[in-house]
Amino acid sequence: MDELRKIDLNLLLALHALLSEKHVTRAALRLHRSQPAVSHALAQLRKHFDDPLLVRQGGGMVLTARALSLAQPLQDALSNLDSLLATPLFDPARAQRRFRLSLSDYASRIILPHLLRHLRQVAPGVDLAISQASRETMLAQLLDGELDLALGLFPELPQDITVQPLFADRFISVADRQVLPASGGMALEDWLARPHVLMAMRPDAFDEIERALAARGLQRRIALALPHWSAAVEVLAGTDLILTVASRAVGSLRQHRTLRQFTPPLAIPSFDYQQAWHNRKDTDPGHRWLRETVWACSQPGR
């Protein structure tokens, strides 16, 4: 390291050109530098190595024994440096890698089938480890390096976390049609009077619906709080419960003939579902590929 500090990398590049070309003018052309600049570099190199390196013989110049001994180690060193500085590549077809993701069964139903089919076709050596957690826990796990990617809604972001929108969605309400007005809709007063189902990882979660209610000084009664999207729809039939949830979480209600969806009588902003990651992953080619793949597999119409 001490010897490396004594010499400029540009001098090593000049030395490589001089040893390869055995000619100052041709070395200058190769380096896109002026001839005087390369002559000056040669003088510095001669002083550093205490050797002439290039000597005149006949009509040209030849390498000294010291220069000959430097040629191959210099070539190896520059090749290794090129490899070190080159942008690493990620070949999904050859990759053997495991990514850790956290997402709800909402995202699992929408994205995972497309994602897994794609991975099995183009990246059979890529494995996924899926977990489920609250948005606060997911962000903490990203910060701690326990996760590669988290999918959800992240209205408040800590420093060093980046998010990308995947798709837009809106909220709908779902209830048993037998206890709905004939019009199929519901007035806000009646909607608030009914017991509700809360979809969240924690029963005390303050989600987008609660935010919309709080903005108007309103409250609803949560009769059931649970983290399972699929079960939330199943429990509605034959009850007076109302579920207000992202529309893509429900999908088609054809298999639930007793249920009906309707627009909530409360202005709840639509939202962008997001993927989040730590900034330390920004330049990781494999992680960049994963983010691009998740985005592509989450687009409507896939």
Automatic annotation (TrEMBL):
The keyword DNA-binding applies. Transmembrane segments: none annotated. Signal peptide: none annotated. The keyword Ribonucleoprotein does not apply. Pfam families: HTH_1 (PF00126), LysR_substrate (PF03466). InterPro entries: LysR-type_TF (IPR050389), LysR_HTH_N (IPR000847), LysR_subst-bd (IPR005119), WH-like_DNA-bd_sf (IPR036388), WH_DNA-bd_sf (IPR036390). GO terms for molecular function: DNA binding; DNA-binding transcription factor activity. Gene3D superfamilies: Periplasmic binding protein-like II (3.40.190.10), Winged helix-like DNA-binding domain superfamily/Winged helix DNA-binding domain (1.10.10.10). Keywords: DNA-binding, Transcription, Transcription regulation. Belongs to the LysR transcriptional regulatory family. This is LysR family transcriptional regulator. It comes from Pseudomonas monteilii.
